Amino acid sequence: MKTVVLVLVAISSILIAQMSRDAKGIVRDSKTQLEWQDDNNMSEESTIYGAKEYCLNKNLDGYGWRVPTIEELQTILTKKEPNPPRIADIFINTKPDYYRSSSYYDKNSSFSWIIYFGSGYRGIKFIGSFTNVICVRDINKTRS
């Protein structure tokens, strides 16, 4: 039993250690090589077009921000049994709500994939409807 507990603690530490937060509100994920916006200036709800414009014009320690794919959004969810997946605790400026991805639903491009940060629910929403957005960028990209 002691060994199982130690292994679980070690795995939890590894997952937490892959993410770090700086004073500007940027969360860096060394595993995925992505930086996530988590500053005090989180976007209000917007359509997919507004989300893309918001991230493109975001200047948080430079530019290069974009709307994440659905796969990228899933990497910042954590699973703590017996609870459903939710946004990682390191993110302090997000809320348990729907967040937009840049991934279009392949059966109808009038919809894009979304994730509910409070439960990990993954679904689709009309691209003209309003949803929260969190911006992401690649760690190694130029920030001019």
Verbal overview:
By secondary structure, the chain is an alpha+beta fold. It has a single domain (2-138), classed as Mannose-Binding Protein A, Chain A, CATH 3.10.100. It has three helices and nine strands. It has helices at 2-17, 48-57, 70-74; strands at 19-21, 26-29, 34-37, 77-78, 86-87, 98-104, 111-116, 122-126, 136-138. The strands form three sheets. The protein has a four-stranded antiparallel beta sheet. It is globular.
The arrangement of helices and strands along the chain is: HEEEHHEEEEEE
Beginning-to-end CA distance, first to last residue: 52 Å
User: Residue-averaged pLDDT, rounded?
Assistant: 87
The strand count comes to 9
Notable traits:
3-stranded antiparallel sheet; 144 residues; 4-stranded antiparallel sheet; 25% strand; 9 strands; alpha+beta; Mannose-Binding Protein A, Chain A; 3 helices; globular
What is the topology?
Blueprint: H1 2-17, E1 19-21, E2 26-29, E3 34-37, H2 48-57, H3 70-74, E4 77-78, E5 86-87, E6 98-104, E7 111-116, E8 122-126, E9 136-138
Would you kindly provide a brief summary of this structure?
The chain is α+β, with helices and mostly antiparallel strands and 144 residues long.
